[in-house]
């Protein structure tokens, strides 16, 4: 029994003494797998970079920024002129005393009233003149009576001269008396007509149809030939704007040019037409006046200030969108795509600005490839990939 026990114990010791090869084998396998994965990743990265470099080398324009360019050419555009000035009556009529004057009894109109030619604006007291006219009318009646008597005596004398009762000399004297009486009638009538004309001139009348602008007289006021202007009128209600323009703007402006007048305090534009261009230039301001005729409107008040846009003809010039223009301390400029598709700066002079775009008055001839937008992200000398857009 002791032997078996020893043998069993001996077998147990031998089993415990055997080496364990399982753990080291697993670690080596894991290390090998990790190394293989790292090498695979490095190879993939290298292959990707090599392919990218090859693609870039094969397509040198693939990395260039694309920009939209436009060739503006030269288009027919309206030449517009901006100006400021004052509103006034196109033909202003000052109305004063035409006769002897006197005390104003009634004023029949107010500013803003439309009147006809010859319409009475104010009346003057004529009590004395009325009595004078009545006296002269009576003188006419007396003269006519004298003429009638002289004519009757002449007729009787003609009947008696054939019988020998009256000589031909007496007949001639009676004919002269009749002629003198007839002349006195005409003198009396002329004097009466003069008095009535003077009385008619006592009333203040409109010289022509139009609009009353101002009133400078009140009932009870004594007026005379030296009283000055009592009313101001606009003939026919016609208005105008007297626009102040520089010598350069006046040079190409002609009568008949279309214009739009905008009074201060409103955005409403009123169509008009240049009817007169000043033939002289003010030596102090170096400006002249363009007179723009406009139809009457209550908003067009003489003496007010207004702005005008005048279409002074048609010119040919490049037209660009607003997005193509840039500016800095050196002035306005655009970017153009020059030889080799390289960006270049071009200084320009801006002309008319309208809804259609910006007219380029100088700096471009219209054949250039102009960067339409995104110029702020470009720099002179930079190479780009231009995409041409048809000019509108």
UniProtKB/TrEMBL annotation:
User: Which GO CC annotations does the UniProt entry carry?
Assistant: efflux pump complex
Tell me which stretches of the chain form a coiled coil: none
Cite the Multidrug resistance protein MdtA-like C-terminal permuted SH3 domain residue spans from the record. 319-373
Membrane-spanning parts: 31-48
**Location of the CusB-like beta-barrel domain:** 242-310
Alphabetical list of Gene3D superfamilies matching this protein = 2.40.30.170, 2.40.420.20, 2.40.50.100, Helix hairpin bin
List keywords of the entry alphabetically: Membrane, Transmembrane, Transmembrane helix
Which InterPro entries does the entry mention? Beta-barrel_RND_2, MdtA-like_C, RND_pump_MFP
A GO MF label: efflux transmembrane transporter activity
* PANTHER family recorded: HLYD FAMILY OF SECRETION PROTEINS, MULTIDRUG RESISTANCE PROTEIN MDTA
> What is the similarity comment for this entry?
Belongs to the membrane fusion protein (MFP) (TC 8.A.1) family.
* NCBIfam families according to UniProt: RND_mfp
Q: What is this protein called?
A: RND family efflux transporter MFP subunit
